[in-house]
Amino acid sequence: MSTLNTTSNGKKAFSLVALAGALTLAVAGCGGSDGTAGNAEPSTSTSSSSSSSMSSSPSESMTSSMASDTTPVGPGCADYAAQVPSGAGSVEGMSTANVTTAASNNPLLKTLTAAVSGQLNSQVNLVDTLNGGEFTVFAPVDTAFEKLPADTVNSLKTPEGAQTLTKVLTYHVVQGKMTPQQLLDAKSVKTVEGQNVEVAGSADALTVNGSTNVICGNVQTSNATVYLIDSVLMPPS
């Protein structure tokens, strides 16, 4: 299986943003139509309408736009779009499925899918939990798991390792769907595991806990916002 190039440390351009940005521009164009009409029509009633539509402050409009933005961002988004341009594992395809189904259809998340569905350890199955609410998921790609020592992975497969595996997996999950800007504004977000992860960088070049890079984030599923990351996050002891 081919994988994304995750060695650029968040410095590549995002051609996918340009592609998906057309949708954002279309929405923005619709939202601004009242203001444009107000400028074109000299009548008093239209001017009043225009004045009313401009009553919201620019900061409120900007906050609303960022909160509803579903454009994927990250240095690997272009590679991801090229590798999976269509079908169930594409950005568009993932958006229609719940998070575990979407992950299972993504060719970059085979190991993570096995880990949350009981295939890695039969005592750990988080499918119903992850599909039962809205979450933000930091999803390590397959090459991230390959960085782990073989002994560590093998230990997670044992009955004794079930609790540790659950702890590691839930450390990658945050309650509620969060945009990149919301994560940056929060700086530190509490995971389902109970401890916090730290988010820094910029909206199109996010880092988690300092050294983990978001390859492509803000990827939507029907109940979660997914951030593909290049390392497995380990909760503090």
Features of the shown structure:
237 residues; alpha+beta; globular; disordered N terminus; Fasciclin domain-containing protein; FAS1_domain; signal; Adhesion/Biosynth-related; FAS1_dom_sf
Question: What is the overall silhouette?
Answer: globular
Question: How confident is the prediction overall: mean pLDDT?
Answer: 80
* C-alpha termini separation: 34 Å
Indicate the radius of gyration in whole angstroms: 20 Å
The helical percent reads 40-55%
Order of helices and strands: HHHHHHHHHEHHHEHEEEEE
Largest sheet: 7 strands, mixed
Give the tally of β-strands: 7
As residue ranges, the low-confidence spans are 1-67
Strand order of the largest sheet: 2-1-7-6-5-4-3
Domain FAS1: 96-233
Protein name: Fasciclin domain-containing protein
Region (Disordered): 35-79
Keywords: Signal
Tell me briefly what this model is:
InterPro entries: Adhesion/Biosynth-related, FAS1_dom_sf, FAS1_domain. It comes from Kineococcus endophyticus. By secondary structure, this protein is α+β, with helices and mostly antiparallel strands.
